Amino acid sequence: MRYVYPCPLRWADMDSFGHVNNVVYLRYLEQARVEWMFMTAKEAGIKEFSLGTVVARHEIEYKRPLVYRSDPVRVETWVTRIGNASFTVAYEVKDDEFVYAIAETVLVPYDLAAERPRRVTIEERDYLKPYLAAALPKSRHR
After folding, report:
1. Which whole-number Å values give the CA distances from 62 to 75, 83, 107, in the listed order?
2. pLDDT (tens digit per residue) in 110-136
3. What is the pLDDT of residues 38-59, one digit of tens each?
4. Looking at the domain 3-131, which fold is it?
5. Secondary structure of the chain in the HEC alphabet?
6. Domain map of the chain by residue range?
7. How far is Cα 109 from Cα 37, in angstroms, rounded to an integer?
């Protein structure tokens, strides 16, 4: 199962080359992740994600330029790994015709009061499991 976020594009997202700037993609991923982990998870009774989750690593591969248009692009999100104290989220930024980017984020549940990482709870694991699927293959550029 994937969480699908319809991500609106803004004119200001473009850079001087006329396509969405590479940094903006991270904002798109963040917005999709926040909707999925904070809003959707909270509706499912999982509030811990919104109380503290930090990004440990991002990896993104740009497939083709994305230019401004009025239609949103889809950010599809799923889980590729659930560990004891971290999990990996994968993404595709796409529409019906093209995939513009693929990405992965390693997330660590974090106890803000104690200022340290914490374990993934059983409830969080149960929430993540339906989204568990294989990662997309990555290109290897030389």
Report:
1. 14, 27, 21
2. 998 899 999 999 999 999 999 999 877
3. 888 888 888 777 778 899 999 9
4. Thiol Ester Dehydrase; Chain A (3.10.129)
5. CCEEEEECCCHHHECCCCCECHHHHHHHHHHHHHHHHHHHHHHCCCCHHHHCEEEEEEEEEECCCCCCCCCCEEEEEEEEEECCCCEEEEEEEECCCCEEEEEEEEEEEEECCCCEECCCCHHHHHHHHHHECCCCCCCCCC
6. 3-131
7. 11
